[in-house]
Write a structure and sequence with these properties.
The chain is α+β, with helices and mostly antiparallel strands. Helices cover 52% and strands 8% of the residues. It has eleven helices and nine strands.
Length: 380
């Protein structure tokens, strides 16, 4: 796959990087875990002003989307900085409400697009929890073909990441919509939640690797940097390969989602065609047709063509599942590497990186465990 970000997309990533670098996200994470949502909501509004949440909202409701490629770009950056809050869930709620239509779409979608509204979500087949339901302005749940607004956050459950608070929404609540439109919208929202979580996991893994490389360059044993040891180099190289192999699967899934939105395979000049997905083979056995790109793995929305088999053979749902499995496991492997090479300090509250270490495994399993995603890929 040759997949190159446009100049606008690269500038969008740089602008988010600058915004988040100045935001003191470790401090925001600590406050969020302690139940103080103020700093997190302030950051959320700034991200809304930057257009992050508008990427999942149609123009008719004040958004600019749905734009999966740009959403992937944004979520990778948010994952790199471990931004707290129901990011994937709010994006998915935008897709759900837009698909279901009705008064709830008019009420909530403009707020999602602007960053004024933070929503959480529980969908069938994705576990009983709604992330950060206590901080969300509303929690939406789907049961069968019925969409309702939960009456409250529900019961708090223990999470491996104290800044990812899990709640079990109770029964009842206000009915919002029903019928086949809700079923279809729920499936689409589940794909978006898995896709966005894959991008968050990839960004989390990138930051863990970056911080670990910096650490082993300055930590010394036997008078030399730890990073000069061959075993350490091999471990870091394996971690890098896992992240780089996941990246084209993520952007390939973004192309598939874009083409699904456009109603079929994209040809020359169609939205999301990119540079095309060529005939390359997967980077490893069991990752069908990914084909490696170059650089940071990129995604152009310009004209292009397809020649030969690629991710398109999977379909959007299976492509998202492949990306989620690869990115989730790569991010978790980066956390294991970081913990091993940092040693005991990786367990301390004082180390900012501890928040990323705690986040990697929940991101791996949220919205589709690796085994569930592989089963989905095999099912086609």
């Amino acid at each position: 796959m040759r997949f190159v970000l446009t100049g606008e997309q690269r500038e969008f990533a740089r602008s988010l990087d600058a915004l988040l670098r100045a935001a003191d996200t470790p401090g925001v994470l600590r406050a969020w875990a302690a139940g103080d949502h103020g700093p997190g909501r302030a950051l959320w509004r700034r991200l809304g002003n930057a257009g992050v949440f508008a990427l999942a909202v149609p123009e008719a409701y004040g958004g600019v989307g749905p734009l999966p490629v740009e959403a992937a770009v944004a979520c990778v950056e948010l994952g790199r900085y471990a931004v707290p809050g129901p990011v994937a869930e709010t994006l998915a709620a935008g897709v759900l409400l837009a698909g279901a239509g009705g008064p709830a779409a008019k009420e909530w979608l403009p707020g999602i697009a602007s960053g004024a509204a933070m929503l959480s979500l529980r969908l069938p087949g994705h576990g009983p929890y709604a992330l950060d339901a206590d901080a969300a302005d509303a929690v939406f749940t789907v049961d069968g073909d019925g969409l309702r607004r939960a009456p409250g956050p529900g019961e708090l459950s223990v999470s491996a990441d104290p800044a990812r608070r899990l709640f079990r929404p109770g029964p009842g609540g206000e009915p919002v919509a029903g019928g086949r439109a809700v079923e279809a919208a729920s499936r689409a929202a589940g794909n978006w939640a898995s896709f966005a979580t894959a991008a968050l996991a990839l960004g989390c893994g990138e930051e863990l690797l970056r911080a670990t490389v910096a650490y082993v360059k300055q930590r010394r044993q036997f008078g030399v940097p730890v990073g000069s040891f061959q075993a350490v180099k091999h471990r870091l190289a394996d971690t890098l390969l896992g992240l780089e192999f996941a990246r084209p699967l993520l952007y390939g899934a973004a192309v598939e989602l874009t083409e699904e939105l456009s109603g079929g395979r994209a040809g020359a000049g169609s939205p999301g065609a990119g540079a095309g997905i060529g005939s390359g083979t997967g980077p490893a056995e069991g990752t069908p047709g990914s084909g490696l790109g170059t650089g940071r793995g990129a995604g152009s929305l310009g004209s292009g063509s397809r020649t030969g088999p690629g991710m398109g053979a999977l379909g959007a749902g299976a492509a998202v599942a492949a990306a989620k499995a690869a990115a989730g496991e790569a991010g978790y492997a980066a956390a294991r590497t970081a913990l091993q090479l940092h040693g005991a300090i990786g367990y301390t509250e004082e180390l900012d990186l501890a928040w990323w270490l705690r986040r990697a495994r929940p991101l791996r399993d949220a919205w589709g465990t690796p085994s569930a995603c592989r089963a989905r890929v095999l099912a086609g």
